[in-house]
Amino acid sequence: MTPVYRGYDQEGLDAQYERLVAPDSYAIFDRWRARSDASAAKRPCIVDIAYGPSEMEKLDVFPSADPDGPILIYIHGGYWIWKDKVDFRFVAEGVVDAGVNLVVINYALTPHVTMDEIIRQVRAAVAFTWKNAGGVIPGNRNRIFLAGHSAGGHLTAIAASTHWQSFDAALPPEIVAGGLAVSGLYDLEPIRLSYLNETVGLDEPMAWRGSPICQTKMEMPPLTLVCGGGESDEFKRQQRDYAATLERGGAIVPTLEIGDLHHFAVIETIAEPGSELNAALLKRMAV
Ligand SMILES: N[C@@H](CC(=O)c1ccccc1NC=O)C(=O)O
Question: Which residue from 172, 108, 104 is spatially nearest to 141, judged by alpha carbons?
Fold first, then answer.
């Protein structure tokens, strides 16, 4: 065998970042969509607000009963290739009744755009939310939190490391109060070396620029990291290594590996009041 990354050969590395981790993956995706449709049908929802000029730069807002409550920006996963905000409206079930104003964002996908462009779009969504909080987006702009799963966990962490005044001189130094990343990718180098890169299209400098583990900043907003105990060794390794890197910088990083849940099971529990993941999220937002 020819080692490609950390002792894994190509097949071994690809297996660590497998597409469909559960035998019933497609049934799970159908259930997410059905729960999302039901969730949108039963509560107020403002859909497809443009946060930028391109087709995919749109977000949906689920207002809570507290227009001065926190704002949670949810960033969906799908290895930067698949999925859409409409698949993750079910997240509202876990947060809106607790007084959190939920924003679920879309972003363009690879190979149509580069990772650099996806990161720019997510940053633009966060900046738009800060500028419009208390206006078109209900909620308190001093309490903007980020959460995301998988590729969305990656985008949560990289957005948390943004130098906002370099991104947009009109912004203050910090506009994010904290974040929670579920099953995130914090190191893109193994992604660049895997089968995923045929579509994701990273080169070495872009993988480095886009890796949260390489891009921590001073005074990061506090992050909580969560994954399932049943995820692949690489997902668990990514979480451990990123937490250790942030902790070397002086941060306190609550870290959870939940039960034996797999990659798709863990995110579903975000919508269950009282679950470990839901409790960790509400705690991060102090609600
Ligand atoms: N591979 C799956 C999607 C996928 O990987 C995924 C879907 C939803 C949430 C997270 C995912 N994985 C990482 O971002 C598919 O083929 O649709």
Answer: 172
